[in-house]
Design brief:
The protein has 446 residues and is an alpha+beta fold. It is built from 14 helices and 10 strands. Helix 1 packs across helix 13 and helix 3 runs antiparallel to helix 8.
Length: 446
């Protein structure tokens, strides 16, 4: 279904789309630029292990460790050169059995594994360290692919760094005891009495860590994707691809937790993994350089609000059918205006609209994966253009009664919205105050 590929493409490194569609299906390489700060919080000042997680926001690292009692140390690192990574979309760092780990499991093992959720102090982290080690083993065997880490998301974006022992791509900036004052007070009450005044009263910062963690995640909701990773769309791979028979590429349900990879066959998974590895090796291959995520954003910016408004206009109870047709017709004209000539239907309007973003891209410049992205954009845009063209010309040259026209347009608009299922229609509609955030269910905080 091209609508699923479209939303997956648009959602790369964006918090909100991947939260609404937590079971990721897409994988692509990216680059963490030189001089990017990365953070790792821990309960001691010791050296970081060879394989470990770092966050792109300090609030995420502190949120994980700061509320656990005892001292909290924040290790800050900086990349010394561009670092190549592999990105898994969805809530790919959310532990659980609902499908968030499917793509990593199929990528690593050729099937969805039933993880043994070990009890005890570490919980599911035992499986996480095994998974991280297996990912890094694959990267090491890849050799010339140069993958040094894996970027995933839960409440914010994190990175599995594969080799803190030998890698020359990072340096330590600082190791600081960032234990919140209220925690220090509890631990050192007798010392504080002797050394001077206690920390000022108020909300303990360690207790507010979850709030600040959520706040940092909202920075990357939708309009502002995680900018500290530059995705390479020429090597965009997705389990929605129709190229593999056992992949779930004929789904019709909403893009949510119902999308699973349980039925993927090992031969298809192996071929998929091999193709990803081969695309990462140094070689001369076509690549248009087009930012396909920007293309999806352009389309959503241009049509998303108008589609929603069209739905509201046609569903309004306060206006009669004639007024609805008038408002909808004018709204549709705004959508098709760049593609019509003298407001006369020639049959070319929909074609111009459908290929508005792709018509002049030379096929020789496209990577194998970009052909799928081009076809996806045209398929999605084609459905949108058809609606706006039909509404506009049926407004200019009426064929039905106004009541039947409203019913037809409303049905077609609702069908399109259900098919597209864009996250922008599910966000908070009111503007948040400065002390509020538009919060959604974010594992593991909410």
């Amino acid at each position: 279904n091209p609508s699923f590929i479209f939303t997956s493409l648009h959602g790369i490194l964006r918090q909100a789309p991947n939260t609404f569609s937590p079971n990721g299906f897409s994988i692509l390489p990216g680059t963490v630029p030189a001089y990017t700060n990365l953070y790792h919080a821990r309960k001691d000042s010791g050296d970081i292990p060879k394989i470990e997680w770092v966050a792109f926001d300090a609030e995420m690292s502190y949120g994980i460790m700061g509320g656990r009692g005892g001292e909290t140390w924040l290790h800050t690192y900086v990349t010394t050169r561009d670092v190549r990574v592999l990105v898994f979309d969805g809530m790919s760092a959310a532990l659980g059995g609902s499908g968030t780990m499917d793509s990593q499991s199929v990528f690593l093992y050729g099937e969805v594994k039933n993880e043994t959720r070990r009890r005890g102090r570490q919980g599911g982290l035992v499986d996480e360290y095994t998974r991280a080690a297996d990912l890094c083993k694959w990267a090491e065997k890849l050799g010339g692919g140069g993958i040094e880490g894996f970027v995933r998301m839960n409440t914010g974006f994190e990175m599995v760094w594969c080799d803190f022992e030998k890698s020359e791509s990072w340096r330590l900036v600082s190791k600081l005891n960032v234990t919140a004052p209220d925690t220090q007070e509890q631990q050192r009450e007798d010392v504080l009495d002797d050394e001077g005044p206690r920390p000022p009263p108020g909300m303990p910062w360690s207790n507010a860590a979850g709030w600040e963690w959520i706040r940092s995640a909202t920075w990357h909701y939708s309009l502002s994707p995680e900018s500290r990773v530059t995705p390479d769309f020429c090597c965009f791979f997705t389990f929605y691809s129709p190229s593999f028979k056992s992949f779930p590429n004929t789904l019709t349900t909403r893009k949510n937790s119902s999308h699973r990879l349980i039925g993927v066959l090992k031969p298809d998974a192996t071929a998929f993994k091999t193709a990803i590895g081969e695309s990462l090796l140094p070689k001369k291959a076509p690549c248009s350089g087009l930012d396909w995520r920007r293309v999806t954003q352009d389309i959503m910016d241009r049509y998303g609000g108008r589609i929603k408004e069209l739905s509201l206009v046609l569903s309004a109870n306060a206006t009669n059918a004639t007024e609805k047709v008038e408002k909808a017709g004018k709204l549709a004209f705004a959508g098709v205006m760049p593609f019509v000539n003298n407001s006369l239907p020639t049959g070319e309007e929909e074609e111009r609209c459908t290929h508005a973003f792709t018509e002049f891209i030379p096929e020789a410049s496209l990577s194998p994966q970009e052909f799928l992205l081009r076809d996806t954009v045209e398929a999605v845009l084609g459905r949108i253009c058809r609606l706006f063209v039909d509404v506009y010309f049926e407004y200019v040259q009426p064929q039905l009664s106004v009541e039947d026209t409203v019913w037809k347009w409303r049905r077609n608009t609702e069908t399109l919205m259900g098919w597209l299922d864009w996250d922008m229609w599910r966000m908070c509609e009111e503007r948040c105050r400065w002390d509020e955030v538009c919060a959604m269910a974010l594992w593991p905080v909410l």
